[in-house]
Amino acid sequence: MTASSVPFDASRPHVARVYDYLLGGKDNFAADRVVGDRMLASIPAVQLGVRAQRDVLGRVVRYLVGDVGLRQLLDIGSGLPTADNVHEIAQRIDPATRVVYLDNDPIVLSHAGALLADDKSTFVVDGDLRDPAGILAHPDVRKHLDWEQPIGLLMCGILHYVLDEEHPADVVAALYHALPSGSYVFIHHLLAIEDPAAAVLQEQMRTGLGRAQFRTMDEVRVLFGRLDLVEPGLVLVPDWRPEPPAVRDHPVLEMACVGVARKP
């Protein structure tokens, strides 16, 4: 694990800690809870959407490791440890699966580093999605993943924090172009839809976290470039390979989409 270059400031909310709060976690501060409470006040069901995001991440990991047979994953913007982390799901299928978590929050790095201190197949590194060159050149990323073998790139709930002027499609392209043939890319993204609640949520995230960029389905599809989406394509979260029991008909679940694509 590397030390974070991001100064720690408990008075500034961070997406990973707000997310932790909405999931019912304890690794958050007053500033994070203020943002979370504002979201809950305007959209009480926002926690349903957060849990659905967590659930689809688990389904994707089981697909990539169990069905496809990948044995290494790079999870960018991994957030704080919760129940059923990516490495736990993957390593239940095959204990040898290697997982690299990448985040830029000092609390995430500290907690994950302590949790994984004795884990020989799971690693945490300091990095920022907006700096793909830095991620790809990171010595721990290079060392802990075999770049001659397929990799599963996970970007769950992180790309809607990359603004248009930061060129998210170029960011994603830089990463997937570096992946070996047979690799997969997973994106979960909040949607710009006609429901006024989505506009309220985006504005609250912009105000509280300093950034948010919801996109249409077509705009999210562009992020995959020329990669081929696997079935069922780019769909709403509940519709990606659902596992019962699943809530599928709540309006909040129309605010995010997911897709998984394969690199030829």
Q: Please indicate the count of domains.
A: 1
Strand content: 5-15%
Q: What radius of gyration results from the CA coordinates?
A: 17 Å
Which secondary-structure class do the elements indicate?
Answer: alpha/beta
Describe the protein.
The chain is an alpha/beta fold and 264 residues long. It has one domain (59-192, 211-262): 3-Layer(aba) Sandwich (Rossmann fold), CATH 3.40.50.150. 40% of the residues lie in helices and 15% in strands. The protein has ten helices and eight strands. The protein has helices at 15-22, 30-42, 46-68, 86-93, 106-115, 132-137, 139-144, 168-178, 196-209, 217-223, and strands at 72-76, 98-103, 122-126, 152-156, 184-190, 228-229, 235-236, 256-262. Strands 1, 2, 3, 4, 5, 6, 7 and 8 form an eight-stranded mixed sheet that branches. β2, α5 and β3 form a beta-alpha-beta unit. The longest helix is centred in the first third of the chain and has 23 residues, at 46-68. The chain is globular, with a radius of gyration of 17 Å. Residues 1-6 have low confidence and may be disordered.
